[in-house]
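Much of our argument rests on the idea that a fold can be written as discrete symbols. Part of our work consisted of pairing the sequence of a single chain with a tokenised description of its backbone. We regard such an encoding as a compact summary of how the chain folds. The amino acid sequence and the backbone structure tokens for this protein are reproduced below.
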Amino acid sequence: MAITRRAVEIRGVTDATVITESIAMPAAGEVLLTAEFGAISLGSESLVYRGKVPAELSLDDSIAALDGGVAYPVRYGYTVAGRVSHCGPGVDTERWLGRRAFAFHPHASHLVVPVDALLPIPDSVSTAAAPLYANVETALTLNWDAAVLPGETVLVLGLGVVGVLTAAIAARSGAGLVVAVDSDLARRAHAAAFLGDAVTVCADDGVEAALTGYPGTCRGDYSGFDVVFELSGQPEVLNTAVRWSAFGARIIAGSWYGTKAGDIALGGRFHRGRMQIISSQVSTLPVHLSGRFDRARRTAIAWDMLSRLPLEALPQRVIGLHDVPDILAAATSTPATGSLQAPREPWIVINYAQGASP
């Protein structure tokens, strides 16, 4: 027996489409998850769409559905939330059948996955909000890598959904000042609507005023922030991070740059200022926490954090699965005639019921 599903497939560089295909029903130890909501991570998905991923790099060796290099056609995406509609042999149906669950999986209306790959969605989190789990987990890990101390000053560069959530978590960690920057006016407005008074949202030319107005700021030749998150997706923005870093500051490189490279000036302020650039990667835990934390503990914390965030204030754009190719095209500045406008909302939600056949 087989079922029919819709899935996004990237057939080549800047060539994505939604296909219809048949897949087999779950085998032993597997379940069928019927997707209800998903989300697009524009930064990483645009890199795959544009062919800007190192050929030798696995898309994500910590996620079975993405463990492999880029060889077109390729499936990508990693946030799907839905309900278990069928259990294969050996799966506890009382526990799983009909249960809401999250899976790291490319965009598809139905997915067959090992039951061990599912994360049950807590009652405190709606199915519509559950795709944000992946972003909250990333933002949480970024803050863990930064090890923000009470009273420290924090700068976030880039206000996509991970940037917005990173700023929100930093503000809740006891940081004395959190400033979030984006060059796009609409993105700043959307971020400010969610972050409120806890974070100062501004363009690059507003950073100095925000920093000067906070009494607990590092002064002198290396006036700047204690922690800077680079989340713009552009490697050259690390120069902006260095510019605004205090002596001994920690710069967290949270963007995935793919094959993009930037000309980074490391011979002046960075060198004399004893600054650190720290790579943050959500597929592994920070080394300094690995003795006490594992993925299960981080998962529980991320779900709890997700349930506490005021998600109703997070601006979003809701699309159907059929809209994904146009969204990718618009976001990479190669829109086709009649394609959707490039998104400025931090959160791009896929509603699988939208545009689906009755």
About this structure: Residues 334-338 have pLDDT under 50 and may be disordered. The two ends are 21 Å apart (CA to CA).
